[in-house]
Write a sequence for this structure.
């Protein structure tokens, strides 16, 4: 198998360069790629040291914003007959040409911890704390509350929404368990009911049970039990007067997208909340 050594040189984490080269090399299934990642490079001395490891059989992918450092790297690479993929500066030049603006070219700017970043971390911590209805005090504090029977993808959808800066809690519906009073303190427009085809739900639950080592028949994926749960869920949704989304044919990502679209229709003033 053919091998290619790729050195990723960045003034930040090098993640952009890594994602880029992985996308490119994915088109070469018979190629083995050896990635060498060199983050936080911000001096010519560091560039020189990194380039001592390089030879003409490798490729360098660089994301260095500082123009002088970038030029130095290209000059060193040229002397050693090494190909450089300068993906960041190419993009910067094209944006400058299109807009007439000049890039600030600050080292490490992409790793600056923004307010959005901290808000996203807070939203993820919120999702973990108030997952699965374990603390109903979280419902009135939530941007969005997901409600549905077991295995309607409440938790994974919650986590996707958290990465988009939404504080989300979720409540599993069980006919034998009384609804917490806190759920009725939530604005109905912030509550989303999730439903699913009973046959598909039965299959999902059966597969889940077997993955946990449960053999034989189980009420968890019994058809009559599932239909009872779903009927109960519909009654709850009517009581809560909430939006209902059918997730039967949806991916988790599509469900999250549908929820975000609905949310901003109801709360357009909060559109700045989402992380792109």
């Amino acid at each position: 198998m053919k091998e290619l050594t790729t050195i990723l040189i960045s003034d930040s984490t090098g993640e952009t360069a890594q994602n880029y080269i992985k996308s490119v090399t994915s088109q070469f299934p018979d190629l083995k790629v050896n990635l060498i990642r060199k983050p936080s490079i911000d001096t010519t001395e560091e560039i020189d040291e990194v380039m001592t490891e390089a030879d003409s059989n490798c490729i360098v992918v660089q994301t260095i914003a500082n123009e002088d450092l970038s030029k130095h790297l290209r000059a060193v690479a040229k002397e050693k007959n090494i190909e450089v993929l300068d993906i960041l500066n190419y993009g910067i030049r094209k944006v400058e040409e299109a807009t007439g603006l000049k890039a600030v070219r600050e080292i490490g700017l992409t790793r600056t911890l923004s307010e959005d970043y901290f808000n996203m971390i807070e939203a993820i911590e919120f999702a973990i704390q108030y997952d699965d209805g374990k603390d109903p005090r979280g419902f009135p504090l939530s941007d969005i509350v997901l409600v549905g029977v077991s295995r309607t993808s409440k938790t994974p959808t919650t986590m996707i929404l958290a990465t988009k800066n939404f504080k989300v809690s979720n409540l599993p519906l069980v006919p034998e368990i009384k609804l917490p009073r806190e759920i009725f303190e939530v604005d109905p427009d912030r509550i989303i009911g999730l439903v699913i085809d009973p046959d598909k739900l039965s299959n999902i639950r059966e597969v889940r049970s077997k993955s946990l080592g449960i053999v034989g028949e189980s009420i968890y994926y019994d058809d009559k039990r599932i239909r009872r749960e779903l009927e109960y869920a519909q009654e709850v949704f009517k009581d809560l007067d909430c939006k209902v989304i059918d997730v039967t044919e949806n991916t988790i990502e599509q469900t999250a997208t549908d929820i975000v679209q609905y949310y901003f229709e109801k709360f357009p003033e909060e559109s700045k909340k989402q992380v792109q």
